[in-house]
Design a protein that fits this description.
alpha/beta, 6-stranded mixed beta sheet, P-loop_NTPase, GTP-binding, single chain, prenylation, 30% helix, nucleotide-binding, 206 residues, lipoprotein, globular, 6 helices
Length: 206
Amino acid sequence: MPPRRRTLLKVIILGDSGVGKTSLMNQYVNKKFSNQYKATIGADFLTKEIQFEDRLFTLQIWDTAGQERFQSLGVAFYRGADCCVLVHDVNTMKSFDNLNNWREEFLIQASPTDPETFPFVVLGNKVDVDGGNSRVVSEKKARAWCASKGNIPYFETSAKEGLNVEEAFQCIAKNALKSEEEEEIYLPDTIDVASRPQQSSSGCQC
């Protein structure tokens, strides 16, 4: 009997309020950007059909409210995620400093089988603001943080101009797919630490 193919890939976007999570999702799915800021209440999601190696998938992208009062959205929200996207605003140091908190929050709530190898992707958004003159988080600093967390793929994006948004989500989809396939191969109730498969250090060959 052939293995069951789950065509739904669940992606969760986390980060402080106002870093552009909703705008990135809308730019990728709908190719639209709005200057009107509207805080997400709780959580919302959009879906996009993608094709990879002759297979069709539905990428289900969950957008979360960054306000602290919504941070504990419940285990059900995080569970089953195939990839987690961490977003910061390159013009706001606090949003970058909080990436670690968001990453830890996700690992606690989602409880992935192997936290060491679960796929994350980091986006440094709003690189277009003030022609890049108001940025306070350098690309070097962001990449160093990603490297220290197991070589997480990193992209600098502009949801407003669409810069690197498509490329970033292609990498996110590939990582989500890799995670989903590994879950499919191994029995969920089998734990074999000694023969853990070797992971690619880059996380994504984009």
